[in-house]
Amino acid sequence: xxxxxxxxxxxxxxxxxxxxxxxxxxxxxxxxxxxxxxxxxxxxxxxxxxxxxxxxxxxxxxxxxxxxxxxxxxxxxxxxxxxxxxxxxxxxxxxxxxxxxxxxxxxxxxxxxxxxxxxxxxxxxxxxxxxxxxxxxxxxxxxxxxxx
Length: 148
What we know:
By secondary structure, the protein is α/β, with parallel strands linked by helices.
């Protein structure tokens, strides 16, 4: 058995460097290194969470995410979920930075978490997930409906 210790990073293919860097900076990531031998930008946040922006994407789907926005269900990674310290503070920061929520806030029932889903400029899906703090203070909180 392979002993996987932790999640290391996620690679996110993008089409526009400046637009995507600005978006991920508004989520708290900063450029750590731009690889000079490949089209990769390594970004980390203050907690050390790492994302790699892969700057070689081409939009062949008229702005649609092939895994999320078409009726056919293709295989692949549909989203990355990032744990946040406070869902209430996260909602405030998203609003302050004019970052649209594509779904949520939603709860999945008894697991004690709330999630909001975002789309980056290339329609890649991010889930920001935190523990339920004060349910009455989470505006628009609903139970997750897989048909939405």
